[in-house]
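Q: What would this chain look like folded?
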Amino acid sequence: MYQQLNGHREQANGAENIRVMLLLANSLDCDALAALFAEQERIEVVETLSNIEVGMAHCRRLMPQVLIIDPQMALMGIQQMAALIQQCYVRHAIILDDRLHEGRLAAILKMPAVSYMTRCAGFSALVTATIQVATRGERVFDPGVMNRMHRTPRGWRLDQAHDQPSVASLTSRELDVMKLLACGRSVRDCAEQLKLAESTIDNHKSRLMKKLQVHKAAELTRLAIRDGLIAV
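A: My prediction, written as structure tokens:
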């Protein structure tokens, strides 16, 4: 289900509006967010969609500057989303989460031109982020986590929180292994899917469980759900 919105508009001074597409799992969320954006002078919502496959296809046709997508959709179509950005059908994507999930944030840090915001930051923060990524091409992260974000020679890094173990301490490969283990996969299954030796998977498993201070698979699953690495 989707709603086709008005065509391209121009501001009074002749500058083009920022073309935005909304891809959210809940169509009511799409309508509500589109109504709020309609009050902004610089932003034009070209379409709202709640179907991942239709959404990706329409991105190729409409070529929005910014795709605002919720984590459920993003996780389902993360490879497609990355391909759209690489092929220049979409300039930038903003993951719009309900609250901070460190696993989801950590998972997109290695993806260029993808930002992360939460609804907790408020609509004005989302508007500011949308304008910034569209006009400056910079990645934006939720204000609630910016004090833990650092740019390194290898890209952005999320520092670990001081008060509890965090998936921010894991490497990207450890995150991959954690997601599979949390879904009930065996070490052998992980090795086959990631094309690594079982001994390598065992080493990753030992390190990540030590970093997270967990000792049982059930605890690992609980953390993966809490941090948004896997859906319930």
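Residues 198-212 form the longest helix (15 residues).
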